[in-house]
Amino acid sequence: MREAARVLRFQRVSDIHALRFSILNTIRVGARHGAPAPFHTVSVADNPGAMRSFIAVGVLAASCLSKAAAGIPDKIYGVNLGGWLVLEPWMLPAEWAAMGGQSCSNCADCIGSEFALVQAYPQTADKLFAKHWSTWFTQDDVNQLRAAGINTVRIPLGYWIVEQLVNRQTEFYPRGGIKQLQRGLQMLKDAGIQAILDHHAPPGVQTPGQSFTGHCTSDVEFYTDYNYHRALVWTAVMTALSHLDPSFSSVFAIEAVNEPIMDATQTPGYGDFQKNFVEVIRAVELVLGIPVPGLTLDVKVSTANFTSALSATVSTSSLFNAEVKSALAEAVPILVELGFELAVSSIFNFDMASSPLKKTRESLVANFMDINWQYNNPANPADAKIGPQGYDNHLYYNFGGVADPNPDAYLTSICNLPRVQNDAALGNSPLWFGEWGLPTQFDATDDFLNKWADAQKLAYSQGKGWIFWNFKVEMSEQAGDLARQWSYLEGVKLGYLTADPSQVHDPNVCAPYVNATS
């Protein structure tokens, strides 16, 4: 099927490029603070061959959507694909140094993030990252994850994967990641592994001094109208691709923001952003004809051209606020470009499948860090709920502040963990633990790591499940013993993590610690 689609695509490649040029020349992107420019539908009467060829590809591709419709697993047994499309230098120090990066105690003081490396090497950075992306996550990795029983991956993404959102005068990020994401999702889909698209590094930086934001800086600008808006446009694009690109069809959730600042007094407007985030997802789905529980579109969609339908909805619907409608409008020209770049012809005709999308796709799960991630009277993401929603919590003991640094204190803490119950009391359910690992503040024995893995899996499985950080880390002299406690695949090889992720070595590991005090 994929080979047939490839052949059809290239039979009329010159006509398709002509059509692309015709469509893109009709688009004006509205200024951020002004009214969005109208999107004009394009007649293809002068170039019918191009559209016929492109639609032929789409018929084949769209017919595959029903074969891999995503859905949240009954229990999540997952890993993060960290270090791939958002590179964190500490996870691969030798490769980072070979790329021209540096290591320092404060990552803002050296070439310690993607932003800094692209700024330092603007002529070669894209090639450097293309090599990294193609080698860090491969078919062999997918095969190992499948063999290990993993059913879910969380994919950290930067906003710059939608390149049209980047201000190239002041923001420095590699280009080409969207095709790598498509490649990775296709491999995961073929392996039957479901995916969460995690907005790990939103525009403007959401927390200071961290390479996982893509730009290690103390200047936090995410919590502004401008950057909230860009994040909503990103959300519209990712939602559309998740439903329309067959390679994305294993995506079941989109996470709004990874690890916002914990002090809610420093995240103004975040509660409104959560509501707008959900509305953007649901607006895209309603236009596509995908049922959204509790919500009905107030206008009739009379065209199967998705970008035209989205534009018409923005113009006539009263269901969504001005900010949501503006974000949807600005996603339209981006989706047109991506439709051609990624060969997703269903963007232009989304009802080509043998069964309509409403029969083959479900609403995506809107995913947030849970309310208890923040303090000082944070907004409750449950208040934003329209349709399916899930919640994420991260727990690392090695950074301190959770339990005293000794084995008994660790096990006492994890075996009496109340987070699932506390979140459920505030409407934050289902809850999964989207990041955790085996690192400790003390030298852990092999025997303790067996117990530590078991106890955490048991605790997190009280909720919807768990997603280990990370699927792998670099094995090198520079990385030292990093993989022993940070790599899932290495943890399985060493025996700390069971070959079947649903099992533990000792189901009674917590018995001596339940209700004990640390």
UniProtKB/TrEMBL annotation:
One of its GO terms (cellular component) is extracellular region. Residues 131-471 form the Glycoside hydrolase family domain. Keywords: Glycosidase, Hydrolase. It holds the Pfam family Cellulase. GO terms for molecular function: beta-glucosidase activity. Belongs to the glycosyl hydrolase 5 (cellulase A) family. This is Glycoside hydrolase family 5 domain-containing protein.
